[in-house]
Recover the amino acids of this structure.
């Protein structure tokens, strides 16, 4: 689940950088980069990121990450 968040963040960063490199042409409807960015943005947001983060946090908290004798408090 955490891997999906890393991939999503990387894809969003690449889309932003690509749009900056191409400039205003990237915002024109119907251009190839516009279509790719819109499609990828939609795809990345379909997974329910809040649910994925919540599940990852629960999995982390259910484990004894501090081991015996190394409690947080």
């Amino acid at each position: 689940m955490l891997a999906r968040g890393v991939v999503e963040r990387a894809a969003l960063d690449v889309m932003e950088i690509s749009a900056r490199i191409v400039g205003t042409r990237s915002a024109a409807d119907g251009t190839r980069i516009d279509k790719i960015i819109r499609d990828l943005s939609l795809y990345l947001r379909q997974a329910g990121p809040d649910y994925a983060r919540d599940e990852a946090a629960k999995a982390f908290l259910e484990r004894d990450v501090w081991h015996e004798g190394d409690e947080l408090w």
About this structure: The two ends are 28 Å apart (CA to CA).
